[in-house]
Specification:
heterodimer; A: Rossmann fold; 4-stranded antiparallel beta sheet; 10 helices; globular; B: D-Maltodextrin-Binding Protein, domain 2; 28 helices
């Protein structure tokens, strides 16, 4: 369903220097599969997701969604994809219901169909208690659920989830991972970028471990174990980024501060921010 | 891949759905944007609270300014005099009242008095004060009167026949105060009149019969009364009204413009929008219309608040004359505000689209706002006329036109230029916004800068974008207007030189500007300007059409005139006759090259080359031809400083033929030939008019266009020629199919 071939993105900075954000990535994701795009900040995960959706044009290579190239038919691709982005915001003066129905309209759904779809999503995402509240008054967890519902409102076969658990507490994160499992059961192709490696290990069917725009490891968990000789994704991750682990100190979560150094020189400008 | 189970709810089956037919997407986007914007308290504050607070405050300042201005202009208020006692006031007051009666009522007081009234025009207002000098200094009285008692028994100390005693007095006034000055002059004139009257009476009593004054002056105030007396003040004030309205409209548009672009980007909602399958132009249009509507709402509320304020403090006659302001004028001002809102909203969106945050957008807009006030203030300059370059100077032209509308002095031709140029500037600004709004550099990059606007695309494109086409048009129209105006006023060169210069201007404007834009946007020149070869038969067809079409253009003029659709301006007719006389003395070759071939080639280069290709990128061939033809007709309507209504229909019709030919052949070259032959034929006929008449080929020399219809045989010949030409084009281009002709050159 998603096919990425030699995808490359080079940003040119104000100083006319070239920064390679994504460097010849190749992978594919099938229906009913959850693909974990993992890596430190600045590894190129978000840039990859944006190129798959057609929000950014690749410097070379291409991404295809159901056989359609993102750079050539971005609107057709967008119609098939739901995006949850860590940097996205909500319309402060609209209620969650108004926002969701507005996006349903943008995706060409009739009012009746949108209402029906919203009625399906409301219990699934537990939106009921705050559906008619203004988005400005929602908590972080509620906002993230609205984002997920917004990405699912047009019932897309493909979901791109960019750091969907960022800023959420344990319960909120768990809820999101439960929803992702649900997406897999529904037969959707899902790409998740996250730094919660332990959760990703349990959730994803296949992994692409990125560092400085490139895959250092790619495949199923078994394949990664064979290639790396390590047992967990966390260990593989620490190894590939050159971080030495202290004896017995196997952090369940790789924090942003512990990976920030790896991002140096690969962040494609401040606008790319820390979300890559 | 491990085989995850797919449940019965297969997502793939649900995926792509074509959008259903309903109201245009940009309108739905606009409704959502409006809903959100109007819920925002900050918008409401700008929209409603500002006018409610600003105008009453302004009106207070305005009223004080005007009241003092009116005092200065007409001395309308009654002077207040200060005396040390009632007795002195009564004694001295008699002289003033007599003097006032001799002088007669002032013009502004006449209506209050019965005809031939002997009553004093002004009742004496006075106050009894202790210190007259201090009370003048305090502004309590306008003039203080200090009476010096004459010594008893002195020459002056005896009563006249009326029982009045002579007095010496000091009039104390404040030269810094206009009211005090006016009161002093009035009292001085009254007393001088009393003295003169007294001297004349005594002379008559002593037997003098001759006329006593060598010069007698009769003051004749003009009859327009108050309206004219304060004309200059009211004219400069009526320029203030549109200026305030425009500034308030800007205020209304600024917040939503920032919020819907930079604000959305900052909050991360723009990413959600661009992740939806909505073309960027639709997003921009939705936002643009929202800004225009909020700006207009602000304008309407401001206009209403201003009119209510003006009416409530009774300033309507002073600002708008005795007729006041009619509903029609109010609607005209409103239409102008719509135009201004359309223009300024586009400029705001173009500027704020560059910004990545609210703060950055504000930083960009502050200089823009200041720059907007400066030209606005220009309109306050008395005697500044809306003409020439000012007619196409953004903002200044709208403020001046609004001023002229309020003063009932607006000229239609200039107004049309203001409307056309502002509309085109708005299109150009939207074009700029479309180029940068939502691009990845602005959306995600830290390196998106103003230079992105001029950054050449990496890939060569076969045709310009519609935005680029309209931007080109927006540059060409005012440039050509200014250049033509300058040329027509030039007296340095003779007719030959002016013809050559006109050709040069045409080349520079119609060739260089589109060419520069095409190079900047990396457009393939051959396909972008439709400079592709065409079948020989198409060229032959174009020649036949070029020879055959002019009688129809002529007949259209005759019909329009007969049915009174157009009226020929006597100035246009006189200018045409003068031109006809002049071109008979110019070499025919020079005429054909400068007025026939060069304009034809250059206009085709732009209208059927660049513009038609650009429009074809976003619409059907029929619509693109229709729109480009209307623009071609409009260009000929407003090409000079005078409106040529008579050129609108024939030029649009010729544009339709040329557009059809261009789409049919996939090339602008046959059109250039047709256009050149059409122009040249008319010029040659004009040059040899006398000879043609002598040979019996010409029309009679009548200047009455209604009786200048062509003989039927000519029209039949022209019809046959047109049919043959069109058939040749159709036959020779039918093999090209739709691949070369109708397909957009994307």
């Amino acid at each position: 369903m998603i096919s990425v071939h030699e995808l490359t993105k080079v940003f040119v900075t104000n100083n006319q220097e070239e920064l390679v954000a994504v460097d010849h990535l190749t992978f594919c994701v099938r229906a009913g599969e959850v693909y974990g795009l993992l890596g430190p900040n600045g590894a190129g995960k978000t840039t990859t997701v944006r190129m798959i959706l057609g929000l950014l044009n690749p410097t070379s290579g291409y991404a295809e969604v159901e056989g359609l190239r993102s750079s050539e038919a971005p609107e057709e691709v967008k119609r098939r994809v739901g995006l949850v982005s860590t940097s996205a915001g909500l319309y402060q003066w609209l209620s969650a219901r108004e926002l969701l129905l507005f996006f349903a309209d943008l995706y060409g759904m009739s009012r009746e169909r949108a209402e029906t779809r919203l009625a399906e999503l409301t219990p699934l995402m537990d939106l009921g208690p705050f559906l008619d509240q203004r988005c400005a008054t929602l908590s972080t967890g509620q906002r993230q659920r609205v984002h997920l519902a917004r990405a699912l409102i047009h019932d897309p076969p493909i979901m791109l989830l960019d750091e969907p658990t960022r800023g959420l507490d344990v319960f909120g994160s768990q809820a999101i991972f439960d929803y992702i499992s649900q997406l897999r059961r529904e037969g959707r192709a899902v790409i998740v970028t996250t730094h919660r490696l332990d959760e990703a290990q349990r959730l994803c069917d296949r992994f692409g471990l990125m560092h400085r725009g490139r895959f250092v490891l790619e495949g199923t968990l078994e394949e990664l174990r064979q290639k790396s000789g390590r047992d967990t994704i966390v260990e593989m991750f620490m190894e590939m980024t050159g971080h030495r682990q202290g004896a017995g100190l196997s952090p369940p979560i790789v924090t942003e501060s512990s990976t920030a150094g790896a991002a140096t020189g690969t962040t494609p400008g401040a606008g790319e921010g820390s979300s890559s | 891949m491990s085989g995850p189970e797919a449940t019965g709810n297969s997502a793939t089956a649900n995926a792509p759905r074509p959008p259903r037919r309903q109201s245009p997407l940009f309108l739905r986007l606009m409704l959502k944007e409006l809903r959100e914007t109007l819920r925002d308290r900050r918008t409401i504050a700008t929209l409603i609270l500002m006018p409610l607070l600003v105008y009453p405050l302004l009106s207070v300042a305005f009223e004080r300014f005007l009241m003092s201005s009116m005092k200065t202009v007409s001395g309308h208020s009654d002077p207040v005099l200060g005396f040390v006692s009632d007795a002195e006031a009564q004694e001295f007051g008699q002289y003033l009242l007599r003097g006032s009666a001799i002088l007669g009522p002032r013009p502004q007081d006449r209506t209050a008095l019965p005809p031939n009234s002997k009553q004093p025009a002004i009742p004496l207002n006075y106050e009894v004060v202790n210190d007259v000098q201090q009370s003048v200094a305090d502004g309590r009285v306008d003039v203080g009167v200090r009476i010096h008692k004459l010594a008893p028994g002195s020459a002056g100390d005896r009563k006249n026949k009326k029982g009045e005693r002579a007095v010496d007095c000091e009039l104390i006034y404040d030269p810094q105060s206009s009211a005090s000055r006016d009161a002093y002059h009035w009292a001085d004139r009254c007393l001088a009149a009393v003295n003169l009257h007294s001297v004349e009476r005594r002379l008559r009593e002593s037997g003098a019969t001759n006329r006593l004054s060598p010069v007698q002056v009769l003051a004749v105030p003009i009859e327009s009364g108050g309206e004219s007396a304060s004309a200059s003040a009211s004219h400069s004030l009526s320029a203030l009204v549109p200026l305030i309205l425009i500034l308030m409209t800007i205020t209304g548009a600024v917040y939503p413009a920032i919020d819907l672009t930079a604000g959305e980007r900052e909050r991360g909602t723009l990413e959600m929008l661009v992740a939806a399958p909505v073309p960027r132009m639709q997003l921009l249009l939705g936002k643009y219309l929202t800004v225009v509507i909020v700006a207009l709402l602000t304008a309407i509320i401001n206009l209403a608040a201003m009119m209510v304020t003006i009416a409530s403090i009774g300033l309507t006659p002073l600002l708008f004359g005795r007729k006041g302001i009619s509903l029609e004028e109010l609607l005209e001002i409103m239409a102008l505000l719509v135009l201004f809102a359309a223009f300024f909203s586009a400029v705001l969106l173009a500027v704020t689209s560059f910004a990545r945050s609210f703060k950055e957008a504000q930083a960009y807009l502050i200089p823009l706002m200041l720059a907007s006030i400066a030209p606005g203030m220009l309109s306050m300059i008395p005697g500044l006329k809306l003409q020439g370059p000012l007619a196409v100077t953004p903002l200044v032209n709208i403020v001046l036109l609004a001023r002229d509308l309020l003063q009932h002095t607006a000229e239609p031709a200039t107004a049309l230029w203001v409307v056309t140029s502002t509309g085109l500037f708005a299109l150009a600004a939207i074009g700029v916004a479309a180029k940068i709004f939502g691009t990845d550099a602005i959306l995600y990059g830290s390196h998106g800068t103003w230079s992105d606007l001029f950054r050449r695309p990496r890939r060569v494109s076969a045709a310009p974008t519609p935005t680029s086409g309209l931007l080109c048009l927006a540059i060409i129209f005012p440039t050509f207007f200014l250049a033509s105006n300058l040329l027509s006023r030039s007296t340095l060169v003779g007719l030959d030189g002016r013809l050559l210069l006109a050709a040069l201007v045409t080349i520079l404007v119609f060739l260089q500007i589109p060419l520069a834009l095409a190079v900047l946007n990396r457009v393939d020149l051959a396909s972008g300007f439709r400079l592709r070869p065409a079948p020989v038969g198409a060229f032959v067809g174009a020649i036949v059409l070029g020879v055959s079409l002019w009688p129809f253009a002529h007949e259209i003029l005759v019909w329009l005139s007969q049915y009174e659709v157009i009226e020929f301006d006597p100035r246009t007719m006189a200018a045409a006759k003068e031109l006809l006389g002049q071109i008979q003395h110019v070499s025919p070759a020079l005429l054909v090259v400068t007025l026939g071939v060069v304009p034809a080639v250059c206009e085709e280069f732009f209208f059927r080359g660049y513009l038609l290709s650009a429009l074809r990128n976003s619409m059907s061939a029929t619509r693109a031809v229709l729109l480009s033809s209307i623009l071609f007709g409009l260009f000929h309507l407003v090409a000079t400083d005078r409106l040529h209504f008579e050129r609108l229909v024939p030029s649009t019709a010729l544009g339709l033929v040329l557009g059809w030919l261009c789409v049919r052949c996939g090339s602008a070259l046959p059109g250039m030939l047709l256009h050149a032959i059409h122009n040249s034929l008319l010029l040659v006929a004009a040059h040899f008019q006398k000879q043609l008449i002598d040979w019996g080929w010409g029309l009679n020399e009548t200047t009455d266009i209604q009786s200048a219809g062509l003989p039927t045989s000519w029209l039949v010949t022209a019809t046959i020629g047109t049919a043959v030409g069109a058939a040749l084009v159709v036959l020779t281009t039918s093999k090209l199919g739709r691949s070369n002709a109708d397909e957009p050159p994307a």
